[in-house]
Amino acid sequence: MANYPLFREVMRAAVSGDAKRAGELDDQITDADRNAYNIYVTALFCGALEHRFATDQSQAAIKRFVDEMRYDYRNAQPPIQALVVEGLIRAVFGEDHLLDEISGEDQLRYQLLALRKIVDQSPEMKSRLDDYLSDAETLAAELQSEG
What pTM value is reported for the model? Predict the structure, then answer.
């Protein structure tokens, strides 16, 4: 069984900007749970994108978000790759073939960065974070049971 309580705490620290705590908690995830954790992060990412793009999933809205993300993380090393961010978002909105071109490591990195941005800029997500974390757990468990 996946260690969802630990995953929730890692994500709570990550989206609140407590990178040190998130790293310490992440180190506690076993190799056996790593895939389940990645699925959990993806599930939370999907929920956050649904929230962020609830009224507009257009190419222009996605581009605005990507441009904002590049600006917000302008000092990131390595630098933000706009096409990777765009591909991850478009994959959630139905163009899942784009994931074939994005490494698992890049998927996780950019999902975490986007989650931090979305939660930080959404008072509603901040106030309902436990609900989003629970929804991500439900979705992740369903995805895992499907195989």
Answer: 0.95
